[in-house]
Amino acid sequence: MALLEARGVVQIFGALQALDGVDFDVEAGQFHGLVGPNGSGKSTLMQCIAGGIIPTAGRVTFAGKDITRRRPDERARAGLSIKFQITSILPMLSVYDNVLLALQVRGTTLGLLRSRTRGALHGRIMTALERFKLVERANDLAGELSHGQQQWLEIAMALAPEPRVLLLDEPTAGMSLEERRVTGALLAPLRESCALVIVEHDLDFIRDMCDVLTVLDQGRVVGNGTVADIQQNPKVQEVFLSRV
């Protein structure tokens, strides 16, 4: 059984069917790319997995448990984390305090009262900042970081609670070529502890990072397999690659 599974996921918004019976699996430690033209349903599927949207039909399971109707915070505590396309850091707080807050909001109220103080979380915060080359900016306001560094900070915040699966929605959007290269290098070591689901329009980045690709078009899966499999798939070439 895969760590994360979606089966027959359907999402309807009024007259629009955004997802039409999507099946999607992620294995432990796997880097899985989710690609497709604009409007193909990628972000909607991510929201169904993360709990931002309850699907019209179908089922989502995580670690063998049905989470289809679970709240986002329940999914987060179970080990599922997401970084959205639009950066949502708190610009008037320090870089350090952004990560601190990300850890505190994942804990229980009882845990916060007993032991989840700033001091108790310091080691985990510094580990997260070191992983994404932000230690020297720890005391700076998050709003003073470059765009690429703000993206790295938000990924650090999503990873700080040590999730089993991290969903990344266009993590390199707006980055320079060098920042994209560095982002790939920073994410690569996560394979040992965390599976990634990456929505991305940068096909070079996806090809270099991912073990498996799932291609969506008009809410349906039109291809699934290794990068080599997808590159040779005539249906994918017809409906997707020429339109990205």
Tally of DSSP β-strands: 10
What portion of residues belong to β-strands?
15-25%
Query: At CATH's second level, what is the architecture of the largest domain?
Result: 3-Layer(aba) Sandwich
CATH superfamily of the largest domain: P-loop containing nucleotide triphosphate hydrolases
| Count of structural domains | 2
Radius of gyration of CA atoms, rounded to a whole number: 18 Å
Structural overview:
The protein has 244 residues and is α/β, with parallel strands linked by helices. It is 37% helix and 25% strand. α3 (95-106) runs parallel beside α6 (147-159). β4 and β5 form a beta hairpin. It contains ten helices and ten strands. It has two domains: 1-79 and 165-244, Rossmann fold; 90-162, no CATH class. The chain is globular and about 50 Å long. The model has no long low-confidence stretch (mean pLDDT 89). The longest helix has 14 residues, at 118-131. It has a six-stranded mixed sheet, sandwiched between helices. It has a four-stranded antiparallel sheet with strand order 2-1-4-5, covered by helices on one side.
Give a quick summary of the entry.
By secondary structure, the protein is an alpha/beta fold.
